[in-house]
Design a protein that fits this description.
heterotrimer; A alpha+beta (163); B alpha+beta (310); C alpha/beta (650); A: 163 residues; 2 domains; 4-stranded mixed beta sheet; 11% strand; B: alpha+beta; Ubiquitin-like (UB roll); 3-stranded antiparallel beta sheet; 8 helices; 13 strands; globular; binds flavin mononucleotide; binds iron/sulfur cluster; binds FE2/S2 (inorganic) cluster
Chain lengths: 163, 310, 650
């Protein structure tokens, strides 16, 4: 696998092994493409071309189809992402309670727009349709933590905790 | 098989059960426009230009995927249908370059024909449009995805050949695009330039590079020929202008018929008055090659020699 | 015997491999196969510990661990409480029970003390010591943590007296917040798996279908299709293999009832699916769960594992000969996959592009096999229907909409959260009696119901009965049950634009009218909101909405114009004001706002001048300041800071 990040990748082998394991697990499962892609993305953080090709070969699915599936679903990413994923809810309740101001505030602080990743790979900024925590609007999720009743300042402050 | 009787534009038609409204209408002599429908490819029902009005149905169903049923009353050109088709055409044109004057498909384009039929003068809406780069990466096929109306016929026909499926739907919504993996060019993909996709594209999104600028649709007469290079017996068209064969294009891609570049080039060599040099991919680059290279004749000659024990 | 589901002594032979048909009944009323007072007592003790009797002197603390409360810190609360109980030597006397969502997340983290049902809201870690000392040891209420009605300022001691709950009819949600969703025994103690037992041993598959038909249950996923009828179709469909699929892709922005049910009472859904499998003749099922619901997926995994371990799912369930296996599929982030054919295509591993219907999934669904697909809430209703009978269920609700419906009440309303009410309650009762009305003394303007496929209803329709048919005829839709309340400061054009932004970005792109049409509708709405609209735009919208509604392939496209159609129908004057007067009557569309300083009120303190990021404000100290409209970016920072209310927005 070629990687442009400049670090030596000693864990490449481990990742390959994990991927192989995931593929073995789904060998006999019908409709395995999406679960395998999900596991592959867990392992690699995103879906490199070579990984998609390997999965396609393993499942005897045309690469074009795999690529079509990957680009259809919002969950899959073709480029490396930040260590911390910020997802700001744009749901109805959050919208009515000022979610876009929160987004603008965070965006300005990080200097990246929607779906952007900071240079240092610390943060990726995304929006999400509704996190289902509307009672706490406006809401954002950082990795698996949900933060509610936000203001632009509070949101920016919260991010400091995530290295 | 059982028959059903239905009424289309006031005319009674009897068709066998399982017939689509589209086919039933054709039987009764009524034309319904289609983009994505292709009898050779599994049904898709995406473009919605073929909608009709059926009494008792809430919406306007797509006739290409709606089965005719007993007692159905269909109107193929009601005011609601005309409004819908017109609006759909305007929507397509709003996201389509208006360069019919220089388009290779001018005169042989369904978007043009239907716009004429429904009096659509241009895009009905202003707003964003696609700005995709032209894929001019190879010597055979030009892909202009700005002209694509996403009928999906190219991708679906490409996938009909075992192991091909070079192109497919990618991305989603307004950004949906037919593309090879990684959204690269055809040259970087595994495309074999068979031209199936081109044969089914209803608009000017896919065109033959070797025919570019050589003539307009109405100047060209098409004469079918069957390729004899292998047992498949694929259909091709000789394109004749002023009595001269100016090119060979893929005919309709039947289910089991693969169509191939070699066959097309071979026929060019055989029939064209002035065939352009063939090109082949060598180490990832297209280069001019000899005809015997392009057609793999050396190998054939070798084989013949071997068989004859020389 | 470690828990209720275990065997009481070696005479009990039930295992997943050698199942017993009396298993469920035995756990609650048993033992059945042998007479043994000691065994009986053991069971009774376990049952008594799960639901404390009203006069019990034991105490049990229920802490909500739903996504909402979790994010407001209920996890830390549990830890703190454990420490505090341990410090007071109460660790094994007082049980802490983790529950699913109570639906009142805004007041979270929530804590209930049983058996008195004392209801503490917004409990912070720092409150724990006081709760332990004053309530759990001292037996006194911690007044300040009780819920206080913002209108009457009265406090509610128990959770049942909170106005938010008092008017609800919690049928599907009856376990949510009251049992531990990670314990099968809690579910069984609340009559869980009795419905399945009854179906398997007292009814034929046809009778189960009949029972569901009698109940009048209609699909809760949006369209309201009669569930019994759907099951009947799948039952009749020819095929050696059939599937049951649960649609847990809950994607409507603003809706989270399915998530709460999955997190708070997962077994109810599993039981409903198993009953369905028995009725239609399927031995395999899938739960397609939205990827954004990790906790729901985790709880489902636990629930399936426990159900299989104890033999209420799996092969030869309770020795009935019926086998049923369940798998979870996590979605990958596409709203359109909530549409049934897209969902099935997605399970098969494809792009979630809808397929043309017919054939309907009932005849040709997952991998071309007959498939019964229902929503989470639909399935969660089923166990009770089997338990109590279809006629009992049909006694609730209106003539054509039976039972209850869960709504996600959000927006400009005092009590936001999940409310479950009998069908037919008026919108007014939901918003004012349960929701507590509009905060800040503002005026109610409209309620948006049914998410992106629904519509906005104005105040003259507040007395509309909430049921499938009334809503549809008013131009809205039940949808999944999102209810977004809007007050006078909400712009209806902006709301339409908001929903179109959503559908535009979620359109799958397969069919022309939806792919191109949503984009054009959104562009027109955006222009109108920016003050660049023309009067022709209204006619154009009228035409595109009609065409898209009539010609789109799937429900997403067919219903996405509804927010525009309904706002044009009830609030056309707002569109006209934006276009002709370049004015947003609600004062919400930023581009149309102007900020001015009222010279009479301005004291020249200079606060606004310093807060303006665009340096648009000038003025000498102690002199009235002015805003340069050309420089103003309409961010509103000045207005929030001014102590003298001198800045006016118009
Ligand atoms: C765009 C779109 C999104 C949908 N999303 C959901 C959803 O999130 N959950 C759901 O249960 N049904 C959803 N539906 C409805 C389903 O297609 C289907 O009607 C429903 O799941 C059937 O179950 P029911 O009969 O129990 O309601 C959606 C429909 C459309 C058109
Ligand atoms: S030329 Fe043939 S192989 Fe290439 S994309 Fe078209 S159909 Fe597929
Ligand atoms: S390129 Fe042509 S055939 Fe392919 S989807 Fe576009 S319009 Fe259809
Ligand atoms: S209506 Fe929209 S979501 Fe549905 S098939 Fe058409 S493009 Fe896809
Ligand atoms: S031709 Fe019927 S939908 Fe395209
Ligand atoms: S998550 Fe606790 S009340 Fe909803």
């Amino acid at each position: 696998m070629t990687c442009q990040c400049g670090h030596a990748h000693n864990d490449d082998g481990a990742k390959q092994e994990a991927l192989q394991k995931a593929m073995d697990k789904y060998k006999t499962v019908k409709g395995a493409l999406i679960p395998i892609l999900q596991e592959a993305q867990e392992i690699y953080g995103y879906l490199p071309k070579e990984v998609m090709q390997q999965i396609s070969r393993g499942l005897s699915i045309p690469f074009s189809k795999t690529f079509g599936v990957v680009t259809f679903y919002a969950q899959f990413h073709l480029k490396p992402r930040g260590r911390n994923i910020i997802r700001i809810c744009q749901g109805t309740a959050c919208h009515v309670r000022g979610a876009s101001k929160v987004f603008d505030g965070v965006s300005a602080k990080l200097g990246v727009g929607k779906n952007g990743t900071t240079q240092d790979l610390r943060y990726t900024l995304e929006t999400v349709a509704c996190l289902g925590a509307c009672g706490l609007a406006p809401v954002m999720m950082v990795n698996d933590d949900t933060h509610g009743r936000l203001t632009p300042d509070k949101a920016a402050g919260t991010l400091e905790k995530y290295e | 098989m059982a028959n059903v009787t239905l009424t289309i534009n006031g005319i009674k038609v009897i068709v066998s059960k399982g017939t689509t409204v589209l086919d039933a209408a054709a039987r009764a002599g009524f034309f319904i426009p289609t983009f994505c429908h292709d009898p050779e490819i599994p049904r898709f029902g995406a473009c919605r230009i073929c909608v009709v009005e059926i009494a008792g149905m809430r919406n306007l169903p797509a006739s290409c995927v709606t089965e005719a049923t007993e007692g159905m009353v269909v109107n193929t050109e009601s005011p609601a249908v005309a409004e819908a088709r017109k609006t759909i055409l305007e929507m397509l044109l709003a996201n389509h370059p208006q360069d019919c004057l220089t388009c290779e498909k001018n005169g042989d384009c369904r978007l043009q024909d239907y716009s004429f039929r429904y009096g659509v003068k241009g895009p009905g809406f202003e707003g964003k449009r696609h700005e995709y780069p032209l894929d001019d990466s190879n010597p055979y096929i030009v892909r202009d995805m700005n002209k694509c109306i996403l009928c999906g016929r190219c991708a679906r026909t490409c996938a009909q050949v075992e192991g091909r499926a070079v192109i497919d739907f990618t991305y989603r919504g307004f950004d949906t695009k037919i593309a090879p993996p990684m959204d690269t060019t055809l040259a970087e993909s595994d495309c074999v330039y068979c031209g199936r996709c081109l044969a089914v594209c209803p608009v000017g999104a896919l065109t033959y590079k070797r025919m570019a600028g050589k003539g307009r649709a109405w100047e060209i007469e098409k004469k079918p020929v069957t390729c004899t290079f292998c047992d498949s017996g694929c259909l091709f068209d000789l394109n004749i202008k002023d009595g001269k064969v100016i090119g060979v294009t893929a005919g309709s891609p039947g289910q089991g018929r693969p169509l191939c570049l070699k066959g097309r080039l071979g026929l060019e060599l055989l029939y064209c008055d002035d065939p352009a040099d063939p090109q082949m991919k060598r180490d990832g680059e297209f280069v001019k090659v000899s005809w015997s290279d392009a057609l793999g004749l050396d190998g054939v000659l070798d084989k013949i020699r071997k068989i004859e024990g020389k | 015997m470690k828990n209720l589901m275990d065997k009481c002594c070696d005479k009990c032979t039930h295992t997943a491999f050698f199942p017993c048909k009396d298993y469920i009944k035995c756990r609650k009323e048993g033992p059945i196969c042998h007479q043994d007072e000691a065994c009986k007592q053991k069971r009774a003790d376990f049952l008594g510990d799960i639901h404390l009797a009203a006069d019990s002197d034991k105490r049990q603390v229920l802490i909500c661990a739903g996504t909402g409360c979790n994010s407001s810190g209920s996890g830390r609360l549990v830890k703190k409480l454990q420490e505090e109980l341990a410090a007071n030597g109460l660790a094994d006397k007082i049980k802490i029970k983790i529950t699913g969502c109570h639906g009142f997340c805004e007041q979270g983290p929530l804590m209930i003390i049983e058996p008195l049902k004392t209801f503490y809201t917004r409990v912070d870690e720092n409150d724990v010591a006081e709760i332990v000392a004053k309530d759990l040891i001292g037996g006194e209420l911690v007044e300040r943590l009780l819920y206080k009605d913002p209108n009457t300022v009265e406090t509610a001691k128990t959770y049942e007296t909170v106005p938010f709950y008092a008017r609800q009819k919690r049928l599907v949600l009856h376990n949510c917040g009251h049992i531990n969703p990670e314990e099968l025994s809690d579910y069984v103690a609340s009559d869980g798996y009795f419905g399945l037992t009854r179906a398997l041993f007292e009814k034929t598959p046809d009778q189960v279908v009949e029972e569901v038909k009698t109940s009048g249950l209609r699909g809760r996923g949006g369209a309201g299709f009669p569930t019994g009828m759907k099951w009947g179709f799948v039952k009749q469909a020819q095929g050696d293999k059939k599937y049951v699929v649960c649609n847990a892709d809950e994607g409507d922005p603003g809706a989270f009832m399915d998530r709460s049910v999955l997190e708070g009472d997962p077994h109810a859904v599993l039981e409903g699916m198993a009953i369905c499998g028995y009725a239609v003749g399927a031995d395999e099922g899938y739960l397609y769960v939205r990827a954004e619901y990790p906790l729901a997926i985790q709880r489902l995994k636990i629930a399936i594992a426990q159900a299989e371990e104890y033999g209420v799912l799996g092969d030869n369930i309770m020795n009935s000969g019926f086998s049923f296996h369940l798998k979870i599929k996590a979605g990958a982030g596409a709203f359109v996959c909530g549409e049934e054919t897209a969902l099935l295509t997605s399970i098969e591993g494809n792009r979630g592009m809808p397929r043309v219907r017919p054939p309907f999934p009932a005849n040709s669904g997952l991998w071309g096999k007959p498939t019964c697909l229902n929503n989470v809430e639909t399935f969660a209703n089923v166990p009770q229907i089997l338990r109590n009978g279809g006629a009992w269920y049909a006694s609730m609700g209106t003539e054509k909409s039976k039972g209850t419906k869960i709504f996600a009440l959000t927006g400009k309303v005092n009590n936001t959260g999940l409310v479950e009410v009998a069908m037919g309650m008026t919108m007014r009762d939901i918003i004012f009696a349960i929701g507590g009305g509009i905060p800040g003394g503002k005026k109610f303007k409209a309620v948006q119901i049914g998410g992106p496929s629904g519509g906005c209803l104005p105040d003259e329709l507040l007395d509309l009965s909430v049921d499938y048919d009334s809503l549809t005829s008013a131009g809205a839709m039940m949808g999944s049950g999102g209810l977004v309340v809007m007050d006078e400061t909400t712009c209806m054009v902006d709301i339409a634009r908001y929903f179109l932004t959503f559908t535009q970005s979620e359109s799958c792109g397969k069919c022309t009218p939806c792919r191109e049409g949503t984009t054009r509708m959104l562009e027109i709405l955006t222009r109108i909101c920016n003050g660049e609209g023309k009067m022709e735009d209204i006619d154009t919208l009228d035409r595109i909405t009609r065409v898209v509604k009539n010609t789109a392939l799937c429900g997403l496209g067919q219903t996405c114009p509804n927010p525009i159609i309904s706002t044009l129908r009830y609030f056309k004057d707002e569109y006209i004001a934006h276009i002709q007067e370049k004015r947003c009557p609600a004062g919400a569309c930023t581009a149309l706002l102007t900020y001015t300083i009222n010279a009479e009120k301005c004291k020249g303190c200079g606060k606004c001048l310093r807060s303006c990021p665009a340096e648009a404000i000038t003025g000498e100290k102690k002199q009235p300041h002015v805003i340069d409209a050309a420089k103003c970016i309409k961010c509103g920072s000045c207005i929030t800071g001014c102590k003298f209310n001198a800045i006016e927005r118009g």
